[in-house]
Structures are given as C-alpha cells and as structure tokens.
Amino acid sequence: MEYTKNKRDYQISLRRGFIGYSILLFSIFFLMSCKGLQKDTVVYFNDFEGELLTNITDGKVEKYNGTKVLGRYSQHGFTLNLKDLPVHNMMQITFDLYIHDTWDGNTVKPEGPDIWIMNIDRWSAVYATFANGLFTDYRQSYPVLQPNYDPNTGFLFINNKPNSNAIKTDLPGACKLSDKKGGTSMYRITRTIEHHESSFELGCYAQLEDSDLPNKNCNESWSVDNLKIMTIELK
Fold first, then answer.
1. Burial of 28 from C-beta contacts in 10 A (0-12 / 13-18 / 19+)
2. Model pLDDT for residues 54-86, shown as the tens digit of each residue
3. To which H or E segment does residue 203 belong?
4. In 10 A of CB 185, how many CB atoms?
5. What percent of the chain has pLDDT over 90?
6. What's the CA gap between 221 and 174, in Å, rounded?
7. Hey, where are the domains in the chain?
C-alpha cells in the first residue's frame, strides 16, 4: 500500500482539503446564524482493551504503560473503514497519539525527517514531523498540520520545539527508551471536517528514517488509543 502521494497528487489532495475546510467554516457560520440544533452521534469508539479490531485493516494491539494500544507501528500503519453512517454534515475524529522513543523531527537523511501521516477519505489531513527523545535541539513541524511546498526544494517543514503541543511528555519509552522518563510523548489529535457521505476512511501511517535499520522498529514507533469517530448533524 502506498501511504504517501507524489508531489502533484499531494498538492491536489491538499487543495481539496483547504477547499473543504473553507466550505466547512462557511457552513458553520451560516448554520450557527440560523440557530439550528446539533445532533452528535458516536459511530465508533475503541480503547483497544478488548483487542477488538473490527473495521480496521492491518490492526494489532500491544500493551504499553499499563494499557492496551493500537500498534506499535513504525514505517507502516492502519486503516479504519466505516459504512452506513447516519445523516450528517460534519465528522469529528479524536484519539491519543503516542510518539515512542527517538523521533528526529525535521532532521535530514539518514536520520530524518520523521513524518506522521493521517489521511481522511484519502486526502491529507496531517502530514507533520515529530521530535522526541533525548536530543532536545531537534525541531518538529507539529502542531502545524501541513508543510509548505517549494517546487525547487520540496516540502518545507516549520521549526517548532520538540514535543510542541504534547499533553504528556513524561511517559516511558516503548523500546529503546523504555527505561527513560520522557521516552514517549502523547498528543491529543482532534480534527473536525465537513463530511456528508455514508462511508468514511481513516488512514494513519508514518514515514520514518533511521540509519540503524535492524533496530528501526525499536528506535522509533507510534501507537494510538481511545479512537472516537463522531458524526455531527446541524439542522
């Protein structure tokens, strides 16, 4: 499965996303001005404690820090597909993202960049780097969700501090830094999008660089917990 698009497809996907969010903002303003009612319906929730992987392709469950999580993944990831959704105008996707061990953020090859990816219905919702571990001089683009693009130099990631916008930074690592406090950072990912279709696809993946290929899965990985999908109907 191809998780990332070529530059042209990425730009088309990104433009579609921007257009969709512009329409979403207008829709919210218009509907709020009409003082309509909002109906929220949770169509999917999984804390993975029961190890249920219904509707998830390439799913796996692992214990981490006293709980069970979807993952761990390194280079690859998972896809969630939902069908027969109730009538709705928008959807909200929320989950906890764990960034484990030594992510090198915006660093260039062979150590980086280390990119985490979220696609919604196959368009790019998050394409951001993360920095985590012992090297505090590294930089990450998150919480900026998309990089700029220069046709001459390629993707240009914003330089934010490591662990920017993390809600926990004192968790133990999962493998390489399993004995280190601060080896894992946790982020709360929330996206609200305009959506009308009866089906929905969420894909989460990563593009991780590491010169130590035999130990790559131990050096840098990620996992997800408390995944909730909600439809929103604005009447």
1. middle
2. 999 999 999 999 999 999 999 899 999 999 999
3. strand 200-207
4. 25
5. 77
6. 8
7. 7-234
Assess if CATH 1.10.287 describes domain 7-234: no
**Which whole-number Å values give the CA distances from 26 to 22, 38, 92, 93, in the listed order?**
6, 16, 17, 20
In this structure, is the dihedral angle defined by the CA atoms of residues 100, 101, 106 and 108, taken in order, positive or negative?
negative
> Of 159, 66, 59, which is closest to residue 107 (Cα–Cα)?
159
- Do 219 and 64 meet the contact criterion of CB atoms below 8 Å apart? no
What are the tokens at 214? 């035999």
AA identity, residue 175: C
pTM: 0.84
Q: Which two tokens stand for residue 129?
A: 């780097």
Cβ atoms of residues 50 and 61 within 8 Å: no
pLDDT tens-digit series, residues 38-55:
899 999 999 999 999 999
Q: Can you point out the beta strands (E) in 102-199?
A: 103-104, 115-120, 123-129, 131-132, 148-150, 154-156, 168-172, 181-194
